[in-house]
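INTERNAL AUDIT FORM
Audit reference: QA-55
Scope: verify that the stored structure record matches its stored sequence.
Auditor: D.O.
Record contents follow.
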Amino acid sequence: MGILITGSSGALGQSLKKAFSGAFCPAHDEMNVANPDSVNKAVMDYKPDTLIHAAALVGIRECEDDKKKAWLTNVEGTQNIVNALGKLNNGCYLIYISTACVFAGEKEKYYTEEDIPSPKNYYSFTKLCGEIVTRQHENTCIIRTNFAPKTQWKYPKAFTDRFGTYLFSDNAAKGICDVWKKKEKGIIHVVGDKRVSMHELALLAGSKNVGKMTMQDYSGPALTVDMSLSTKRWKKYKLI
């Protein structure tokens, strides 16, 4: 089976490479999702029967500061993939990796696949637009998840009052692989089995010296404060 994974250099992409051994994981210069010609060439040359689209511009500040780049990557890039699969016309199964941040997250609420998204920042908005774009392709599954690599926390501090049903990237990739095996369609939430703060997550990842901060210490683009997901369609996974 031919599996193509975009965004394989990211934390989730690295885990997907391990979960889908032998998959074609083109580098940016081999397949630039923002370039339709590049996408067409990679798709038509490889002819995948599964494409996992994990490439995205994910930095919230970066997306706010460069909305053009965010739209080009997250929305037009997804459209380029859908268009290429339409030309390939082999019934390719498309998995689009979305985010818990498509929801407002203003109250403690476990969002399911049936809840209505309400993005709070431009990153989240573009990811929701990407969801809409992928629905043009019939054989599609939209997977919303929230993950982090099990490595040293990349910031000196982490929020004690920002929450999610996180997974470490290896377990998120396992969940995606499970969905792929069943060839599910529509929207599925691949979620962890417990709600934790970002600071708790950092400690579980092994960052013993990470400091604490609260939303009152933050200044910047609007954030999804509670990214907790639940699922009515799938199973939950162990955080650790």
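Auditor finding: record pair retrieved intact. The mean pLDDT is 96.
Action required: none
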